[in-house]
Amino acid sequence: MGDASEVEHRTGNCETCGDGTCSAKAARDGESPEEHEKRIALRRRLCRIGRKVLVLSGKGGVGKSTVAVNLAAWLSMKGKSVGLLDVDIHGPSVPRMLGLRDVEILGCADGMLPVEYEDIAVMSIGFLLQNDKDAVIWRGPRKMAVIRQFLAEVVWGDRDFLIVDVPPGTGDEPLSVCQLIEDADGAVVVTTPQEVALGAVRRSITFCRELALPVIGVVENMSGFVCPKCGERTELFKSGGGERLAREMHVPFLGRIPLDPALTLAGDDGHPLVERLAESATARALQSVFKPILDLPRRP
């Protein structure tokens, strides 16, 4: 679960870690004692996590949650201790994709306990909804409060990775996540090949740059259709748009994921494809995309 020095770094807390550069050591200008204490509580949780990776998309429907779920599952398969946080307030997909739709959140003296999927610690707003028909009708401040609660009050423990499935766009929720996770290691930006998606991704990359959030790379999802019978690949949409965009915006291109019915079925059945069909061409494409994230260096 990471090397010894990394574990030692994470097991400290705001009273004993001795890091004089920690952003929570002193109150900021205009920050009340209550606000400072909340920030200390947040840092106390997050400093125990080695890598914090945000999965973003410029628009909905491009497979962002599919990428986040399979990334978390693959990292766990590689022996990493992983947390998966779904903060897509209005469209939580992670509980269904992991077969956790009817799970109840439990608490303890230290906070809320994440739901366990095999060795992955999972938290989602979906666990708080009574059924699939419930709509979350909240304004910005309440959304930010819940996101903060999930980060600061969930007992994540010592984790090598926290994967955050962030709502699409560049509005309140993505901004709140980036502001709360001040030392996020980077963002994986998911797109599809069509220009309507690529235009939104350009804005996502600009959003990251304005917030000093490193872009780990662009993933082109639904890049060609894989026939479930013969395995032949057909270009339903023009492919290569994600790679061209990455070059244009001077960010890494992580790779392409085909439009494979097996990937959709795996999500609907609650079993990530990288686990269910680990030797399939699509699973190998996912693994290739994820490899640079496994080797991600700690952000200075």
Highlighted features:
300 residues, 8-stranded mixed beta sheet, two-stranded antiparallel ribbon, Rossmann fold, alpha/beta, 38% helix, 12 strands, globular, disordered N terminus
Q: Would you kindly provide a written description of the structure presented here, covering whatever features stand out?
A:
The structure is a single chain. This protein has one domain (28-294): Rossmann fold, CATH 3.40.50. The chain has 300 residues and is of the alpha/beta class. The chain has helices at residues 4-10, 33-46, 64-77, 94-97, 140-152, 172-180, 195-210, 241-249, 261-269, 273-276, 281-294, and strands at residues 49-57, 82-86, 106-108, 111-113, 115-117, 120-124, 159-165, 186-191, 215-220, 225-226, 233-234, 253-256. The protein is 38% helix and 18% strand. The two termini are 20 Å apart. It is built from eleven helices and twelve strands. Strand 3 (106-108) and strand 4 (111-113) form a beta hairpin. Residues 1-13 have low confidence and may be disordered. It is globular. The chain has an eight-stranded mixed β-sheet, sandwiched between helices.
